[in-house]
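Field guide to reading this record: the first block holds the primary sequence, the second block holds the structure written as discrete tokens, and the final block holds curator observations. Each block starts with its own label. This record concerns tRNA-uridine aminocarboxypropyltransferase, catalogued under organism Sylvietta virens.

BLOCK 1 — SEQUENCE
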Amino acid sequence: CSRPQKVCLCPFLPVHPLKVSTCLYIIQHPAEESRVLRTVPLLAACLPPEKCKILVGRRFNEDRYPELATVCRNPSTLILYPGAEATDLEEVAVMSSSPSVMIIIDGTWSQAKDIFYKNSLFRLPKQVQLKPSISSQYVIRTQPTNTCLSTLECAAVALSIMEKNNSIQETILHPLQALCSFQLQHGAQIHHSKEHLLKNGLYDKPMPKNKRKLRRMELLVNNVKI
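BLOCK 2 — STRUCTURE
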């Protein structure tokens, strides 16, 4: 896990990489590389190298990423990105019998949105989303809403659905739970979502002057899906 011995997470990783047929392509915003408590390294440590490929960047075109372009054009490839055009992953998994490839964008919500909409390749795969049925266990980082998940959590839920094996989710979440526990023991504080803070009058930062950002906060408070 490349962490100091005192907070080593290796005992919480699977002894052997999980055997999965689904291959993940993690499209990582460059800013995520510098984050100390990022979750993608833990995800990669749980899976075989050939089943978890990480590409770092903001712009992806066919000339620079021919392999990715081929993947995006494959009819069995899925991209996990919520929206009006996305299909619930459970519905897709029921109809899928062959090994699939899934693309997941790793970054803040604004970074992920920028990558998704400014790269035409990512509109080629079938767009899927997860049902908002669980709350994030990544409690040491603030999420926009109560149902927003970290990249590792999204991958854990998605793989358990695609592989039809609930134990996969439990195995991948184990090191994340240990990471949060270690950080809380060493002075970190539990971070409630921005949605929770706004609804309970606990948001202590200045309200944005940008009308678009202010409108998004109003939607969070009023329980409107954004």
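BLOCK 3 — OBSERVATIONS
Residues 29 and 61 are 15 Å apart (CA to CA).
The radius of gyration is 18 Å.
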